[in-house]
Design a protein that fits this description.
It is found in: Nucleus, Nucleolus. One of its GO terms (biological process) is rRNA processing. Keywords: Nucleus, Ribosome biogenesis, rRNA processing. Helices cover 44% and strands 14% of the residues. The longest helix is centred in the last third of the chain and has 21 residues. The strands form two sheets. It has a six-stranded mixed beta sheet with strand order 3-2-1-4-5-6. The protein has a two-stranded antiparallel ribbon with strand order 7-8. The protein is elongated, with a radius of gyration of 47 Å. A hairpin with a 6-residue loop joins strand 7 and strand 8. It has a domain of 154 residues: 3-Layer(aba) Sandwich (Rossmann fold). It is built from ten helices and eight strands. 20% of the residues are buried.
Length: 246
């Protein structure tokens, strides 16, 4: 599963955990349309959903959904065995089966106290159960996808926690006041840098010439005398000079 898709699932599941108290293992309620979509996409429902939700799951269905699958057994022969592999929970319609829309609506009740995650491809069921808060809806569109929480779920989540938010804001204010009392802020002092006198750069200065100091005989005062440079004369020039003097 890709990283962005994984983050999206974690965020949605965290919403239902925090506001509607969903816990693992998740209880997943499946109808025939979801099983048929899984068969067409060659997906193993238990394996795919457990990986997608990143948790253990329990697959449930109702006797009304199985009755609907019986009527479609000739058209879709592999549908009924796959739906019957799920655990059948009592929906209260033993005497006479009702439509899956009404059956699932009764299973979810008003607040989805059993914390069912609904898996269906039926648009009617999805539309009806979006009106009830705290019902996650999963469908197959090439891969398994989960819907964003409905507006009703988001509204009830925010309305139900207004009091707690106000308490948290009050606690934050008290903590900030205590911090200000305990941690007294010291006045900020700007220290101006004293400008130091800068001399010449010693690397850019020329080296001083070395002067030999010779003491004078008369006054004992030291006088400076510069050294004369000695020039070397080659031997053939010396011979020429001697011949000229002769």
């Amino acid at each position: 599963m890709k990283i962005l898709r994984e983050k999206k699932v974690k965020k949605i599941l965290a919403f239902y955990k925090n506001y509607f108290h969903f816990r693992t293992p998740y209880q997943v309620l499946i109808d025939g349309t979801f099983c048929l979509a899984a068969l067409n996409s060659h997906l193993d429902i238990n394996d795919v959903l457990s990986k997608y939700l990143q948790s253990e799951i329990r697959l449930f269905t109702t006797s009304c959904a199985i009755a609907e699958a019986h009527s479609l057994e000739k058209l879709f022969p592999g549908l009924l065995p796959q739906l019957c592999s799920c655990q059948v929970c009592s929906c209260g319609h033993k005497k006479k089966a009702v439509s899956v829309v009404e059956c699932f609506k009764s299973m979810v009740n008003n607040n989805n106290n059993n914390h069912y995650i609904l898996c269906t491809q039926d648009k009617k069921i999805q539309k009806v159960l979006r009106k009830t808060p705290g019902v996650p809806i999963i469908f197959i569109d090439r891969t398994v996808c989960i819907e964003q929480p409905s507006k009703v779920s988001q509204q009830i989540a925010t309305d139900g926690f207004d009091g707690e938010v106000e308490e948290l804001n009050y606690e934050d204010k008290v903590l900030n006041q205590l911090k200000e009392r305990i941690l007294v802020k010291k006045p900020r002092v700007d220290f101006k840098k004293q400008k130091s006198k800068k001399g010449a750069n010693p690397l850019s200065c020329k080296k001083k010439k070395v002067v030999n100091v010779v003491p004078s005989k008369d006054n004992g005062i030291k006088k400076s005398r510069k050294r004369r440079k000695k020039y070397k004369v080659s031997s053939h020039i010396k011979e020429l000079l001697k011949n000229i003097q002769q």
